[in-house]
Write a structure and sequence with these properties.
- By secondary structure, the chain is of the alpha/beta class.
- About 25% of the residues lie in helices and about 20% in strands.
- Strand 4, helix 8 and strand 5 form a beta-alpha-beta unit.
């Protein structure tokens, strides 16, 4: 099947080998810009604050995109949005191409769907929370919604006992002890109340003027509220409601009142009305990049393992070394990492992806003390070395983020963070030698040390 390509694909393809930093991120129309730190509003609900602090301790999660776009092998829903940065190759005619995209509802049949495998692999990878895409911008629901038949539960998969996919996914991850996050797109391009068939569909927003068709918009608001109410009522306890599609604001769909009711059923529910500054963006979400400096607010970098959020045939993936380096930088700057993993159309995690994730987990098992439950420290970076701290600030961790293909160094140097007493290599639990001269710390790396990110523990002088 011919893959739909995007004009911007070359830009995101680079992310398969190196992440895009905040300071050099190119203009990527599909990437949500981060909200300004100055616009952050701390929650007043103490249960939300408590859950938010618990989430900040988790550090590492997974963001899973799975839908019609997985069947096609394209850049999520975007090919059906007629914007000038998109190029399609299946049908040059936009309307034909859009109808061809919709038609995949009749062929998506993930007979190997195995959420227990997903949860098991992610747990072994060292992940602590999950976000699952219940509905992307195309409106196709990966759950059995009562308010539309445009869903996985009404196609070839309809007679499968696991047709209510989101419920199966959430339940599988709960059994593994994950915090549970529900991704939901506020825009819905399949709904006639969002993209009304009376008009063309040129861009990502609604295709009519609300003041001319207020009844259409109210129908859409009610539809969206109904879907969010069912997700926050009928799918077990949720910890995070992750709302995408910032060209529709939470205010427009009545998010304030929705959250009041949702938090009665899900106490402390974290709201992520991403890129919409204000009280309902409980944490910020820089996409495909890392902020240039530490941030003193809750935040999460969402970064893909390959070059796209969903499944792409023949995709190239970041190495375990690269992911650990990205995670180390994010944690040193005070954030969490949601790593994007897209299951196959059949509903499984690819063997090559499993291998990468399990290698990450192997490193986390030996070195996770430097990541989980840590806080920031003032001198947080020195070259390739990133620093985190215990919550009392007395213990520091130094993580040397080795690069792909680099041999294990004989020595590692940094300044300012001077050890007091012994310095331990977390991988082995053994003390290593170091010297301090003119405020520079030089660590002797033991001979035979594996070429991988190296984490050290020491008391701060």
């Amino acid at each position: 099947m011919k893959t739909i390509k995007l004009a911007a694909l070359a830009a995101i393809f680079a992310a398969s080998t190196i992440y895009v930093s905040a300071q050099d991120k190119s203009d990527q129309s599909f990437v949500h810009e981060q909200s300004e730190v100055k616009d952050y509003v701390w929650p007043e609900d103490q249960q939300v604050m408590q859950k938010l602090k618990h989430w900040q301790d988790q550090k590492f999660g997974v963001l899973m995109h799975w839908g019609l776009y997985s069947q096609i092998g394209c850049c999520e829903s975007w090919p059906i949005c007629s914007e000038d940065w998109i190029r399609r190759e299946h049908f040059p005619d936009y309307e034909k191409d859009k109808q061809w995209y919709w038609s995949h509802k009749d062929s998506l049949n993930p007979v190997k769907f195995n959420p227990e495998q997903w949860a098991s692999v992610m747990k072994k990878a060292g992940m602590k929370y999950m976000l699952f895409t219940t509905k992307h911008h195309d409106g196709f629901c990966m759950y059995d919604s009562k308010y539309t038949d445009f869903s996985i539960a009404h196609g070839p998969f309809a007679n499968n006992p696991r047709k209510n996919v989101a419920k199966e996914v959430f339940d599988a991850y709960r059994k593994q002890g994950f915090m549970i996050g529900c991704y939901f797109s506020k825009p819905d391009w399949h709904s006639k109340w969002f993209w009304n068939p009376y008009y063309a569909t040129p861009r990502r927003g609604i295709n009519y003027k609300i003041d001319q068709h207020p009844d259409w918009w109210q129908n859409y608001v009610k539809f969206t509220q109904n879907q969010l109410s069912e997700l926050t009522s009928d799918y077990g306890k949720l910890d995070i409601l992750w709302l995408d599609g910032g060209w529709v604001t939470g205010d427009q769909i009545g998010l304030d009142s929705l959250l009041v009711e949702a938090r009665k059923r899900n106490p402390g529910l974290i709201s992520v009305d991403r890129t919409i500054r204000g009280k309902n963006e409980n944490y910020q979400t820089p996409e495909q990049g890392i902020p240039a400096t530490q941030l003193n607010i809750p935040w999460e970098s969402c970064i893909t393992l390959s070059h796209a959020w969903g499944y792409i045939p023949g995709a190239k993936f970041k190495s375990p070394t690269k992911v650990v380096g990205i995670l180390s930088e994010i944690v040193a700057k005070g954030g969490c990492l949601a790593l994007g993993v897209g299951p196959t159309p059949e509903g499984t995690i690819q063997p090559e992806v499993q291998k990468i994730l399990l290698e990450i987990g192997n490193w986390m098992n030996r070195n996770g003390e430097a990541i989980y439950n840590t806080v920031i420290t003032p001198h947080y970076n020195d070259g390739k070395t990133w620093f985190t701290a215990s919550k009392n600030g007395k213990t520091l961790y130094a993580i040397y983020a080795i690069e792909d293909g680099e041999e294990a160094p004989q020595t590692i140097t940094w300044t300012v963070n001077r050890p007091k007493g012994k310095l331990t290599l977390l991988n082995t639990g053994k003390t290593v030698k170091y010297t301090v001269k003119d405020n520079q710390v030089t660590v002797q790396v033991p001979a035979g040390t594996k070429a991988e990110p190296l984490a050290f523990k020491f008391e701060k002088k």
